[in-house]
Design a protein that fits this description.
Length: about 550
């Protein structure tokens, strides 16, 4: 059965009312806002009521660099949550919301797979509770207000050539990366170059995910730099006087969404920044709520540990006020063979030499995560083509690195297939954690970037493009150069070249642009050919999606 068929079979009669899930979590009836029988938002009042509750243990799920073979990080997050509940632990999962870009494009959704899924999967992967639409609306409303200000007299002296705020759309549309607006005469606005980012790459998404509450959200929105004046001074949302209006549009989107897994484990799904072009973590509000409602909270960071997990540690954790108590690095037999040079068509055959070669990628991720002083578990996501010899070899290689390792079959068996992983995680949670940040908060831009490149990616250094050099001068002039770095980089490689698999070394990262994101509180460092508006593949997933006369969806995955 496909993922959607498994989910639909469950949804036909096995899902519990969301009121039951909420009650089991300790929430009162008036502390959730229902979106039908199986979805709800947790109110701000509920978050305030539980604010003094102690935080539970935090497990961060990350992975090796993604490959076309698939790693299944969300599937493992869900399966681990279900397995821990089978072990009698009050567990809450906190994940990101899917973007329609991957859903209709190539990557797929973000609700797990097989018998380790969050439901209702169709709703979550499509419009859900409307958060993505609210964010898109807020992004574009702000863009309209900026252009209207310029049109109506431009009291702030904004230079139209230096408006940095882009419009947004939550779908992959390469045709909108660079556009010209305001054509048609004086009543149609000021002609200028513009462009669209995918909604999940917008600073408003980052701000939503890093805000502690509505008050903090409003303050962060006000600090967003949207343009520069003719004399090169930054212009913020506060300067425009529209901070309140933009915050109003995100009032409901700021509340975390409550759903459940196939095995009824409570799951908060909220916020969805991409990890290759943004910080790749679900909201601070949702993670904090999960930590206060459960004894163990499981959350994930997007793509490989060089992107999502690093950003969780160095960007999200200081804001969250909590560092992970254990890290799970997801790998597969197939992905390691792919990193070892085996073609996608040949991954089904046993190849121990390729695993030994491809293990270099997992090995570097293990060593990187160990630098943070947090206990590590490698979770091997099982496929039917895995052989006993391959599994045994991976376990031995991980143990040689001093990392605990467990094999899981959660896609096929749900929580029952994750008990070995659950036991390994519970053992890791009993170990001491001595978290150490990767770099000092007050270190320079150059020191931060070199530390990331040399200690995480394995490279030698970086070079700035002409545009990046200009950006850095502006950043230093305005005193923003001590902010944390959010690297926008290909997810497929430690380097900025997606074709360099395994564990490349001594390469140089090319920085194409540096963008200050003062609302989010970091600098986005664009590298290589990274794009903030992806394109659709030649055969997009949309070609397989359909709906019958009864409203039953097929082909969603």
């Amino acid at each position: 059965m496909s993922d959607i068929e498994i989910a639909q079979a469950n949804e036909a009669g096995e899902m519990q009312p969301i009121t039951t899930i909420a009650t089991d979590l300790g929430l009162n009836a008036d502390e959730i806002e229902q979106y039908g029988p199986y979805k709800a938002k947790i109110t701000a009042a509920a978050q305030k009521r539980i604010a003094d509750k102690p935080l539970g243990k935090l497990v961060l799920m990350t992975a090796i660099n993604p490959t076309p073979a698939g790693e299944g990080k969300s599937t493992m997050s869900v399966g681990l949550g279900d397995a821990l509940r089978r072990r009698g632990k009050k567990t809450v999962i906190a994940l990101r919301e899917p973007s329609l870009g991957p859903v209709m494009g190539m990557k797929g959704g973000a609700t797990g797979g097989g018998y380790a899924q969050v439901v209702p999967m169709e709703d979550i992967n499509l419009h859900f509770t409307g958060d993505m639409h609210a964010l898109t609306c807020a992004v574009d409303t702000l863009a309209a207000l900026i252009d209207n200000h310029v049109q109506q007299g431009n009291q702030l002296n904004i230079d139209p050539r230096r408006i940095s705020w882009k419009r947004g759309l939550d779908i992959n549309d390469r045709a909108l990366r660079n556009v010209v607006i305001g054509l048609g005469g004086p009543y149609q606005g000021i002609p200028r170059e513009d462009g669209f980012d995918i909604t999940v790459a917008s600073e408003l998404m980052a701000v939503l995910c890093l805000a502690s509450d509505l008050h903090d959200l409003k303050q962060r929105i006000g600090h967003i730099v949207v343009a520069f004046t003719y004399d090169r001074k930054p212009v913020t949302v506060d300067d425009l006087g529209v901070t309140g209006a933009i915050t109003v549009l995100l009032r409901d989107a700021a509340k975390p969404n409550l759903v459940q897994t196939l095995e009824h484990t409570p799951t908060l799904i909220h916020g969805g920044p991409f990890a290759n072009i943004a910080h790749g973590c679900n909201s601070v509000i949702a993670t904090r709520t999960a930590l206060r409602l459960g004894d163990i909270a499981i959350t994930e960071a997007g793509f490989g540990a060089d992107l999502g997990a690093e950003k969780f540690m160095d960007i999200k954790s200081p804001v969250l006020g909590k560092t992970p108590d254990a890290v799970v690095i997801v790998a597969t037999v197939r992905a390691l063979k792919y990193n070892g040079g085996v073609s996608l068509k040949e991954l089904g055959g046993e190849n121990l030499d390729a695993i030994r070669s491809g293990f270099a990628n997992l090995q570097r991720h293990i060593r990187n995560m160990k630098r943070y002083g947090v206990p590590i578990v490698v979770g091997v996501n099982g496929f039917v083509s895995d052989t006993p010899a391959e599994i045994a070899l991976i376990k031995q290689l991980c143990q040689d690195e001093g990392a605990a390792v467990a094999y899981a079959t959660v896609w096929a068996d749900g929580g029952a297939g994750g008990l070995e992983l659950a036991d390994a995680v519970l053992a890791a949670l009993q170990q001491p954690s001595d978290f150490q940040p990767l770099y000092a908060a007050d270190s320079s831009f150059t020191d931060k970037l070199n530390t990331l490149i040399q200690q995480v990616y394995g490279g030698a250094g970086f070079e700035l493009s002409h545009q990046a050099s200009i950006n850095l001068k502006t950043i230093k002039k305005n005193g923003w150069d001590k902010l944390p770095l959010c690297i926008a980089k290909t997810q497929y490689s430690f380097s900025d070249d997606p074709k360099k698999l395994g564990a490349p070394s001594d390469f140089t990262i090319t920085v194409s642009e540096i963008v200050p994101k003062l609302g989010a509180g970091f600098l986005v460092v664009k590298t290589g050919a990274i794009l903030t508006m992806p394109g659709l593949p030649k055969q997009p997933a949309a070609l397989n999606i359909d709906i019958d006369d009864d409203g039953r969806i097929s082909g969603l995955f």
